[in-house]
């Protein structure tokens, strides 16, 4: 079962990293317009804008983490489904709960990280 667990985690990891990177970048670009407005119209220094920009990243990761988890699971399991891997695993006698258990663990870890991020890191 360790091989199956590692395989599922490996298939979810790359889409997760890509999704969180892309989503965070998109949200950062959206906030860059507001920060540029502060520099141009209000006279805020560029170093202060850079600090605000990097301090805003944990807030955005808090928003994009659940979305990235969802996207990664959808991508991985759509590939599993299109290659009939889920059907093959069930034909081998592996119950669906064994297949979904790594997702549960990943979800709990992501939820705890998001909780820590929003409860203690972001308010500081």
From TrEMBL:
InterPro entries: LptG/LptF_permease (IPR005495). The keyword Cell membrane applies. Pfam families: LptF_LptG. The chain crosses the membrane at residues 12-33, 53-78, 99-122. It is a multi-pass membrane protein. GO terms for cellular component: ATP-binding cassette (ABC) transporter complex. It is found in: Cell membrane. Keywords: Cell membrane, Membrane, Transmembrane, Transmembrane helix. One of its GO terms (biological process) is lipopolysaccharide transport. This is LptF/LptG family permease.
């Amino acid at each position: 079962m360790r091989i199956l667990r590692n395989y599922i985690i490996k298939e979810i990891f790359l889409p997760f990293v890509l999704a969180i990177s892309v989503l965070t970048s998109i949200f950062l670009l959206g906030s860059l317009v507001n920060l540029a407005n502060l520099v141009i119209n209000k006279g805020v220094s560029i170093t202060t804008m850079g600090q605000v920009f990097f301090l805003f990243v944990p807030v955005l990761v808090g928003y994009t983490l659940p979305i990235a988890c969802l996207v990664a699971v959808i991508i991985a399991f759509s590939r599993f489904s299109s290659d009939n891997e889920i059907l093959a695993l069930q034909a081998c006698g592996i119950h669906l709960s064994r297949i979904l258990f790594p997702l549960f663990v990943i979800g709990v870890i992501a939820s705890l990280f998001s909780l820590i991020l929003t409860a203690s890191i972001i308010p500081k």
